[in-house]
């Protein structure tokens, strides 16, 4: 069952917000040589990273509670199994009383991209340079994953997420605002947004990575669509690498009815065709005369 179906059958069970959080600064962020001696999943947070996570918890509490103006809210966490994400969650949790937290689930499908063998630093530098040349989405690290591989498992996670909501496994009270917080990694978060908003590979390639403990708030709009533009400013979204067209789509989602298509989205249609005939008659006339000039091009302003 998809979000539009949930909106029709359980209009009050949809989360008010789905918030994505990248982990705090890790030893690997500070010094990449850490990967030569420590498995990626065991890389810990730095002292700075722990402080960032505590600050993120305070910020999340403020966002979710409306600075104290929204009394009826609850929170549910999903977390990557890596040490740095679990530590980030632990520090975030200090900002929330037990009665506000519905539960937490470790979720392997939102783990970090597998980069393969990190033991030879010089080799990894060459591999990362190749990734930049060949594209970040499809390039697969030797013995590791591509962003496309991460996309597949994040897509599977999204299906499970909607089943949890549909079956009310999160035990949501319809009179409380539900907030889902996913503590993950930079690439997994970008792929999550790509899948959710149906962004293209080209649009993904233009996105910037999140900073440590940076958040992305997807909030439910009036008609049942989620939008980044409710909580975040246009300036923020431009800094993240969203194009003007992508930002316009986010603004449209604030008031859009669930299930509607945004006809002004070029990546839903126009990006895939150079020139389309207005009708079958133009195509027939062109076939008869072999004159391409009889087929007028139809474009949508972008």
Automatic annotation (TrEMBL):
<dbReference type="InterPro" id="IPR052765">
    <property type="entry name" value="PGM-Related"/>
</dbReference>
<dbReference type="GO" id="GO:0003824">
    <property type="term" value="F:catalytic activity"/>
</dbReference>
<dbReference type="InterPro" id="IPR029033">
    <property type="entry name" value="His_PPase_superfam"/>
</dbReference>
<dbReference type="InterPro" id="IPR001345">
    <property type="entry name" value="PG/BPGM_mutase_AS"/>
</dbReference>
<protein>
    <submittedName>
        <fullName>Phosphoglycerate mutase family protein isoform 1</fullName>
    </submittedName>
</protein>
<dbReference type="Pfam" id="PF00300">
    <property type="entry name" value="His_Phos_1"/>
</dbReference>
<dbReference type="InterPro" id="IPR013078">
    <property type="entry name" value="His_Pase_superF_clade-1"/>
</dbReference>
């Amino acid at each position: 069952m998809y979000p539009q179906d949930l909106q029709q059958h359980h209009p009050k069970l949809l989360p008010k917000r789905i918030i994505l959080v990248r982990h705090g600064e890790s030893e690997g962020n500070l010094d990449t040589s850490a990967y030569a001696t420590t498995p990626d999943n065991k890389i810990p947070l730095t002292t700075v990273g722990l402080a960032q996570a505590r600050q993120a918890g305070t910020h999340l509490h403020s966002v979710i509670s409306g600075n104290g103006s929204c009394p009826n809210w609850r929170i549910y966490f999903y977390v990557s199994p890596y040490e740095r994400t679990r530590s980030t969650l632990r520090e975030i949790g200090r900002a929330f009383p037990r009665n506000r937290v519905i539960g937490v689930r470790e979720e392997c499908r939102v783990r970090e991209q597998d980069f393969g063998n990190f033991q030879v630093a010089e080799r990894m530098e060459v591999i990362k340079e190749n990734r930049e040349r060949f594209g970040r989405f499809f390039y697969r690290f030797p013995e590791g994953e591509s962003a496309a591989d991460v996309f597949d498992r994040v897509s599977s996670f999204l299906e499970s997420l909607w089943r949890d909501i549909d079956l009310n496994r999160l035990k949501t009270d319809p009179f409380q605002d539900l907030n889902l917080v996913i503590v993950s990694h930079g690439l997994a978060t970008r792929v999550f947004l790509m899948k959710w908003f149906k962004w293209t590979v080209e649009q993904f390639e233009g996105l910037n990575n999140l900073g440590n403990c940076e958040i992305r708030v997807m909030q439910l709009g009036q008609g049942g669509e989620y939008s980044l533009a409710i909580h975040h400013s246009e300036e923020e979204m431009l800094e993240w690498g969203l194009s003007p067209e992508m930002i316009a789509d986010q603004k449209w989602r604030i008031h859009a009815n669930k299930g509607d298509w945004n006809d002004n989205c070029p990546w839903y249609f126009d990006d895939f065709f150079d020139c389309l005939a207005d009708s079958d008659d133009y195509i027939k006339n062109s076939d008869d005369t072999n004159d391409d000039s009889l087929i007028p091009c139809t474009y949508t302003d972008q």
